[in-house]
Design a protein that fits this description.
The protein is mainly beta. The protein is 14% helix and 36% strand. Strands 1, 2, 3, 4, 5, 6, 7, 8, 9, 10, 11, 12 and 13 form a 13-stranded antiparallel beta sheet that branches. A hairpin with a 4-residue loop joins strand 1 and strand 2. It is globular, with a radius of gyration of 18 Å. The chain starts with 8 loop residues before the first helix and ends in a 5-residue tail after the last strand.
């Protein structure tokens, strides 16, 4: 009897049809939508998938920056992924997501063939209860994209019912993974790096009109590091540094459950301050 395995929701959402050497076509499913358009993490993962699927790919991701130039909707889009320069062990890419005849997302991806070297770290994973000892967040009533993840909040939770007062800072610590579980790879790690609540939600304990303008993720682990992590939860840590004249930043870390820093991320986010 033949058995069929359904694609994981993330793989369905990031699936692309190759049109020619540098162009791909896709469409984001409603299950990954956020306040306005798709969840930014799945947009970034899809752009990264275009690079990683390209026949001229040379190396593995070290960093990715994407800029949200305009809204994305639930109609077809095209992605243009082109290698700008290839060196012996590094490769630089430009990527664009084009919808309705104009760029909605622009970005760059840096790939490298990593060499063995001295290793060290200046920061350590926080000491927190293991994931199994932290309650799973009930995502009922949240945006659709959150149902594709399991969150276990250790501290710094956002209470959308208004039951919590404004906080002194926006620091959050939480366990997170794909739901249903999926072995970690570069695509899922890229999406998970955008899974934090906007910092102003935590600080003010109320929703606001927000939108990421630019996001950079740095990949500190290699393919073997991600393979070792498997489908277990990552520990995410996030904070903001300043809210000023309509924009705030967000700094995040993603740790494997063995204490290895797998990724860090930085964003600049637009917000509307009415009501604060």
């Amino acid at each position: 009897m033949t058995q069929y395995c359904a694609l994981h929701p993330l793989d369905q959402a990031t699936t692309l049809e190759s049109l020619d050497a540098d162009r791909y076509r896709g469409r984001f499913p409603p299950s990954y939508f956020n306040m306005v358009g798709p969840f930014g993490g799945v947009i970034a993962s899809t752009l990264l998938n275009a690079v990683l699927s390209h026949p001229k790919r040379h190396g593995d991701p070290v960093s990715m920056t994407i800029n949200f130039a305009g809204p994305v909707d639930d109609t077809d889009y095209e992605i243009l992924a082109r290698p700008a320069r290839t060196n012996r062990s590094t490769q630089h890419w430009t990527v664009e997501l084009i919808q309705h005849g104009q760029p909605a997302i622009t970005g760059t991806v840096f790939l490298a063939i990593r060499r063995d070297s001295w290793e060290g770290a200046d920061i350590r994973m926080p000491e927190v209860p293991e994931a199994a000892k932290v309650d799973v967040l009930d995502t009922t009533g949240y945006r659709p994209w959150m149902n594709n993840y399991e969150f276990r909040v250790v501290d710094g939770h956002f209470h959308p019912d208004g039951s919590a007062p404004p906080q002194r800072d926006s620091h959050s610590t939480l366990w997170m993974r794909d739901e249903p579980p999926r072995p970690l790879d570069y695509l899922s790690l890229m999406a998970l790096s955008d899974c934090f609540f906007p910092r102003i939600f935590i600080r003010q304990q109320q929703r606001a009109l927000v939108g990421t303008v630019s996001m950079t993720t740095y990949f500190h682990g290699d393919a073997e590091s991600l393979r070792r992590q498997g489908s277990r939860s990552l520990l995410g840590v996030a904070r903001a540094q300043r809210y000023f004249k309509g924009y705030f930043d967000q700094v995040g870390e993603l740790w494997g459950d063995d204490g290895e820093l797998l990724a860090s991320t930085h964003q600049i986010v637009y917000f509307k301050s009415e009501g604060f």
